């Protein structure tokens, strides 16, 4: 399986000023994301691989091993349909 995540076409990811957080918008509603989830999702640009996302986040938050957390979040995001892996 390709490991380059991107936002699924039926969802929109954006900063929501009124909520003071990143959100995922879809026709039926909205999902408010935690700060860490937002940091991961904003890197799901269809260009960076999962490993590149992990490396970038560990650089932004030094001293923290984020591999498992990032992979778990991406698995959950894929299961929820928020992301897909590039074909």
Architecture blueprint of SSEs:
Layout: E1 5-7, E2 12-16, E3 21-26, E4 29-32, H1 35-41, H2 50-60, H3 67-79, E5 83-85
Antiparallel strand pairs: 1-5, 2-3, 3-4
Task: Give a description of the structure.
- Helix content is 36%, strand content 24%.
- By secondary structure, the protein is α+β, with helices and mostly antiparallel strands.
- The longest helix is centred in the last third of the chain and has 13 residues, at 67-79.
- It is globular, with a radius of gyration of 13 Å.
- The relative contact order is 0.25.
Question: How far apart are the first and last residues' alpha carbons, in Å?
Answer: 9 Å
Helicity range: 25-40%
Globular, elongated, flat, extended or rod-shaped: what is the shape? Answer: globular
Main beta-sheet strand count, sense and barrel state = 3 strands, antiparallel
Approximate strand percentage: 15-25%
What value does the Rg take, in angstroms? 13 Å
Instruction: Indicate the low-confidence ranges by residue numbers.
Output: none
Number of helices: 3
One letter per element, helices H and strands E, the order comes to EEEEHHHE
Q: Give the tally of β-strands.
A: 5
Assign the structural class, choosing from mainly alpha, mainly beta, alpha/beta, alpha+beta, or little secondary structure.
Answer: alpha+beta
Q: Order of strands across the biggest sheet? A: 2-3-4
Overall mean pLDDT: 95
């Amino acid at each position: 399986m390709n490991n380059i995540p991107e936002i699924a076409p039926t969802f929109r990811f954006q900063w929501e000023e009124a909520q003071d957080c990143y959100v995922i918008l879809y026709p039926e509603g909205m999902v408010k994301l935690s700060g860490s989830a937002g940091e991961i999702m904003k890197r799901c640009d269809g260009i960076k691989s999962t490993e590149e996302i992990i490396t970038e986040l560990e650089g932004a938050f030094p001293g923290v091993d984020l591999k498992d957390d990032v992979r778990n979040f991406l698995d959950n995001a894929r299961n929820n349909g928020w992301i897909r892996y590039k074909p």
